[in-house]
Amino acid sequence: MVFKKRDLYRYLTLTTSFSFLIEARSKREAAEAFPYKFNPNSLDFSTVALINHNGDKKLFHTERVEDLSFARVEFAEHSGQFRVYGKMSVVLCSSNLDEVSDHLFQKCSYRIPGSLYADKTVWALSSGQQPLILQIHSQTAEWGAPVREDALALVPIAQ
């Protein structure tokens, strides 16, 4: 009988506060456009590339968007544009790991990479017609407990 090794996964909750520019005639119109312009159904969250403190890139798969909330709208000093602020929490899943790499992996702090052209962190999300460019103001990443892929479900591992 051959035993197949079950894969080890780890979840990461990425919480960000962000803003993006939107064209509107008024603050009210910009605020009302937020749920239509920015929602998990209209944006591609399938994979997210993050980097660790060494600059190593890792691709995570999006499990779900847990929290997406509107905060405020400010005039952006550009003709007909407003800056919309919000918060978001996304649960990401690491690809399969082994016991050794998981131990090293969870010690790393992952984040959205900064821009190459400015001293800002930006996140471009595909939204069909044109990308939605988010300016990230703050971000935190918290590791969840490791889980093993069982035949039918993900099973938590006692630590």
Summary?
The chain has 159 residues and is mostly beta strands.
Distance N to C terminus: 29 Å
Can you count the helices? 2
Give the tally of structural domains: 1
Written as H for each helix and E for each strand, in order along the chain, the element string is: EHEEEHEEE
Q: Could you say which overall geometry the principal axes of the C-alpha atoms support? A: elongated
Global Rg: 18 Å
Number of distinct beta strands? 7
- Into which percent range does the helicity of residues fall? 10-25%
The average pLDDT is 80
Instruction: Pick out the low-confidence regions.
Output: 1-5
Strand residues, percent = over 45%
What does it look like?
With 159 residues, the chain is mainly β. It has one domain. It has helices spanning 27-37, 99-105; strands at residues 8-23, 47-51, 57-75, 81-93, 121-125, 132-149, 154-156. Strands 1, 2, 3, 4, 5, 6 and 7 form a seven-stranded antiparallel β-sheet that branches. A hairpin with a 4-residue loop joins strand 6 (132-149) and strand 7. It is elongated and about 50 Å long. The two termini are 29 Å apart.
